[in-house]
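seq:
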Amino acid sequence: MIQQGFKKSTSDHCIFVQKFFDTNFIFLLLYVNDMLIVGQNLSRINSLKKELSKSFAMKDLGPARQILGMHISRDREAKKLWLSQEKYNEKVL
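struct:
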């Protein structure tokens, strides 16, 4: 990820950040073989996915609905995002 221009977060070593001159950014969360890419510019995200796919086999599952047992819901119009671990909690309890 460093070779792709990302910097590792000091608070969590699974999070990488790439900031651009125009205040846009990409966050890449990497845990074992799960990856979540978050950013403001879809073109830059697609470019990153294309570059990463040259280094290793990966699947694009589309917009994130779940990662690491967390359900992800969003309302783009209201600019809101919800994370839920309800199913995980039920499984554990």
